[in-house]
Design brief:
mainly alpha
Length: 206
């Protein structure tokens, strides 16, 4: 193994760890935004009650947006659990790579004179392959979960647009209801952007 090859794999693992950190930061951002939507929905429900019959439809949609925020929070909790597992897997890969490098150096220095060194390196390579396999499986699960969450957020976008339409029938409360529905749309657009970032991230670098 030449010098560039020795550097390639550790740097790749460092890149994978960096990716997981970025994914976790995006998940935290979405969780905070989902909490904000929940508070906004509660405020919208209260506002719709004050508006009375003129805002019945808006009140129904506000309740749906609150459910959407709760569902989104659950989705992001699952994603956070997945990435926690990924951190452990990548850390295991990095440790195994270090062990393999030490064993390789021992083989170079001693040739075949140290019993069991080559066997130990072979076992280490097998464990490394298994850890990479687990990381790839986590990567696939994360991507599938992000796609599922994106579908949920599309529904949230539909609800926000519908709330904006209903706000126009809110009588004297129409301007306030319109502002709330606009805020909903902007926050959901922010979540979409974060999910697009997550969708582009890969825990495993080929």
């Amino acid at each position: 193994m030449n010098a560039p090859e020795k550097l390639k794999t550790p740097s790749r693992s460092a890149s994978e760890l960096t990716c997981i950190v970025r994914v976790n930061e995006e998940i935290k951002s979405i969780v905070a935004t989902a909490f904000r939507i929940n508070l906004m929905a509660l405020n919208a429900i209260f506002l719709a009650k004050r508006a009375g019959n003129a805002a019945l439809g808006f009140g129904v949609l506000s309740n749906e947006l609150r459910r959407f925020a709760q569902d989104l929070t659950h989705h992001m909790a699952s994603l956070r659990d997945m990435t926690s597992g990924s951190v452990g897997s990548v850390t295991g890969v990095v440790q195994q790579q270090r062990n393999s490098a030490i064993l390789l150096q021992a083989i170079r220095l001693s040739g075949d004179g140290v019993p069991g060194v080559r066997e130990a390196r072979k076992r280490g390579a097998q464990r490394l392959a298994e850890q990479h396999g687990r990381l790839r499986a986590l990567d696939l699960r994360l991507r599938a979960a992000v796609e599922e969450t994106q579908q949920l957020v599309e529904l949230g976008g539909v609800l926000a647009r519908s709330a904006k339409i209903e706000a126009a029938y809110g009588g004297g409360f129409s301007p306030a209801l319109m502002q709330v529905s606009t805020d909903f749309a902007e926050v959901i657009a922010q979540i979409k952007r974060s999910l697009e970032v997550l969708g582009k991230e890969r825990l495993v670098k080929d």
